[in-house]
Amino acid sequence: MARAVSETHGEILAAAARRFAVTGYRGTSLQDIAREVGCSKATVLYHFANKEALLAELMAPAIAVLQDLDDQLTDLTGAAAQEVAATGFVDLAVRFRREIAVLRGEFPELLCQPPFAHIQRISERLRDALAGHSDRPGPRIAALVLLAGISEACAEFVDIPDDELRAALLTLVRRAIEPVDAHLPRQPTTEDKDS
Amino acid sequence: MARAVSETHGEILAAAARRFAVTGYRGTSLQDIAREVGCSKATVLYHFANKEALLAELMAPAIAVLQDLDDQLTDLTGAAAQEVAATGFVDLAVRFRREIAVLRGEFPELLCQPPFAHIQRISERLRDALAGHSDRPGPRIAALVLLAGISEACAEFVDIPDDELRAALLTLVRRAIEPVDAHLPRQPTTEDKDS
DNA sequence: TCAGGGTCTGACCGATCGGTCAGGCATGCT
DNA sequence: AGCATGCCTGACCGATCGGTCAGACCCTGA
Questions:
Q1: Which residues in A lie closer than 8 A to residue B153 (C-beta atoms)?
Q2: Do A149 and A82 belong together in one domain?
Q3: What range(s) does the HTH tetR-type domain occupy (chains A, B) (predicted)?
Q4: Closest chain B residue to A141 measured between Cα atoms?
């Protein structure tokens, strides 16, 4: 055997992503991942400190983008925040379909752990922004339905091209979201989104 | 101890519903349920043949209503099917919030078992009806987003009164769904959308 | 009084989980 | 040659899982 470290490391990561997306984090054993890679379970635990560290490394890119989106939202309010939240999350969900699928349904206990503790707060702020920071139940419910539904849709429609899926989701969100200010029409808000 | 059979039976059912809704089916052990009831794990398995039977009995009422909704949809097309699917599913999701929460995220393996095998087909038909039986990706994606999002929202907003939640969800669905022309069933407006 | 059925339990089972550990096997440097 | 280092593995560990089983504890009816 004796492959290059980066090679095996990456293979394990890819295999874990595939298995997690199908059977979930809890529903996938280290043995399953090792079998898919073609190595032993001990090898998996040689490259990753434990199962949770494997998940953390798998989610890191998506979490980084989510963090960026959250940073952008801190300075925005009203319709601008709605627009950035909508386009930002749709883009993120489409790009990281597989990672989103992993987290689907494993929230309550998994996201309380240290590596993911702040995700819940970020997603709450995201939902708040999408609801136009309204405290009425209508917009808040709509925001949750859309965010959760988009995650599910991205996890399900794996065979649709990125841009087509993104366009359909954005159209849906724009139609479904109540603009926060009636007299202030929704506009693209071409904020410079440097990365 | 020695409570009446129906009493303990119901208590186990209620405790299981509570635990499943929080930690999921796979994430809840029979020991957890027994601890919440205040009896032994063996007692749980005295009242229910196995863990899956416990889940099946828990979901039976919701599944029955879902089956009814599916039956109603078989004779409908176009806008009528959309309307019935929307109101029917929103009503179902609001009424069976806790049961919906259980199934959230445990789909791929759990719903393949005999007691739940037909749920997937029903939910596909439901999604199809909500999409106005269109084969364009836009409506189909929108239908999935809404169905999944509604499930998630009902599982999350446990403290909102039924009618308020139902009203908000129906408003959202009506705004988000593209109404299909009643006199033109399935108009192929897809003008070279392929990639 | 006693038999019998319904209810409940502790003890136990095999399987599987995440994780540890000592050591094998290459490779490369001195 | 000798040694160190990185990669990998089989064997093993304690914990927990779903599930089984013999028997204890009621209550009731004969």
A1: 141, 144-145, 148
A2: yes
A3: 6-66
A4: B153
